[in-house]
Amino acid sequence: MRRPWRFPVWWLVGGAVVALAGAAAIARQSLEQQRSLFETDARIVHRLLSQQVVQHDAMLATLALLQPAPDSGGGAASPEQRLPVLYPQILSVQRRDPDQRWSDAMLTQAETLSRQTRRAALGGLDLTQGRYQLVLAATPTSYALTIDMRAMVPWPEWPMKAESSPVRVTLEHAGQRYVVQAGAPAADAPAHGWHFGFHKLLAAESQPFDVVATRTVGWSELPWAGMLAWPLGVAALLAALHHLQRQRSARRRAEELLRLGQVARLNTLGELAAGMAHELNQPLTAVLANTQAAQRLLLEAPPELPTARNAMLQAVAQARRAAEVVGRLRQAVERPDRSGQHQPVAAVEAVRRALYLLEPECQRREVVPGLDAPQAVTVLADPVALDQIVHNLILNALQALEQVPPAQRRLTLTVSTQGARADISVADSGPGIAPEVLPRLFEPFFSTREGGLGLGLSLCETLAQGMGGALSAANAPQGGAVFRLQLPLATGTP
């Protein structure tokens, strides 16, 4: 059974932080863009409306400068009466000749103020109806314009679609307000969100209307597609990095296993060659002894068997030659003396390296190893030989656990000290070791596993003895087997 992918906790936390920060940055960038667009539109609105009110001042200034002769009735024949035809926002034009009075007291007050300030002044003001009057005092004739604020707006140049834009634009003065653009309906306006605002007086002192623009950006207007795509991209990147890390870890594990396998094969070859040389040397010695005895017997009767004597001499020579060949073979393949390669090695790290290399095997068998190492233990050993022993012991334990149900599989590794020696034990909850097998467990070529060579434990014992240690096996009282490797502690280790 393959264990599913599990991201480290810090990967998940870091990925969540990056995803949230990225989504927040995207939302903030979108809000900044919408704010910038809003302010640009608001400035354009202010400029367009300012041009209109400045134009009104220019109209009155032109009328005052021309000062046409007053007609008898001030009717349509007067030149100023043609202004409403040319400018649709001008509803009407009134004039007051020296011998006349304004029909509205507010116009009289506005004219007085105009004379004091020497510029046009507001007369009647009704922003709820979208109308106001503008008066300019002049000599001899004063003029007043009645302006329609709706027609004053230059809609062809307007930067927004008035019927669909969410921006609300109003003109405000003296507590009155005229809605130029209604913006989003109240039912559709978001209750919560980000509020943008803009207000600025028009560029005409005679018409000091405050241009006020507002907009509320709701949560639904955020770029959710991009904000969701960013976490997905981060998740995909983390998955790719995790996959690459797993591949790199698997490749490194395979390289370590290959190196350890090569060392194991060389050691096994040396063990096999040494065993073969030992086994062949005895019959060759017997052949040598027999042929020498035959030679002595034949020498007692030389006249009868000269040919046999020569044959026996050749047999002796060949037997000696065979013994020399076997001896040279043993010297060639016998393991070199590794005592000079002993060095201080952290026993716990050796166990962890073996567990790292065998992690896929543990996952395949649904085994979660337990490591009990309450203190740091340093042994004097050959690092490669120690890795090979621990690797073989753990692999044998995993193979033994295959004979019990997954729920009962336990593998415990313990690193401790006993006097001047370190004790590394590998305990499993498998079926244990049969009593008749236990005495022969470390014999060369003895194996209870089908297809096994029977050299693994024998080699481990030889390597342990070569480092001044010992390897033993026993059945645990609670069931299963326990293999114990004892090695000398490094100098200075408590």
Task: Give an account of the 3D structure.
The protein has ten helices and 15 strands. By secondary structure, the chain is α+β, with helices and mostly antiparallel strands. A five-stranded mixed β-sheet has the order 10-12-13-15-14. Strands 1-4-3-2 form a four-stranded antiparallel β-sheet. The protein has a four-stranded antiparallel β-sheet with strand order 6-5-8-7, with helices on one face. Strand 5 and strand 6 form a beta hairpin. The chain is rod-shaped.
- Cα-atom Rg, whole angstroms? 53 Å
| Integer count of domains | 3
Coarse structural class: alpha+beta
Mean pLDDT: 81
- Hey, roughly how much beta strand do the residues contain? 15-25%
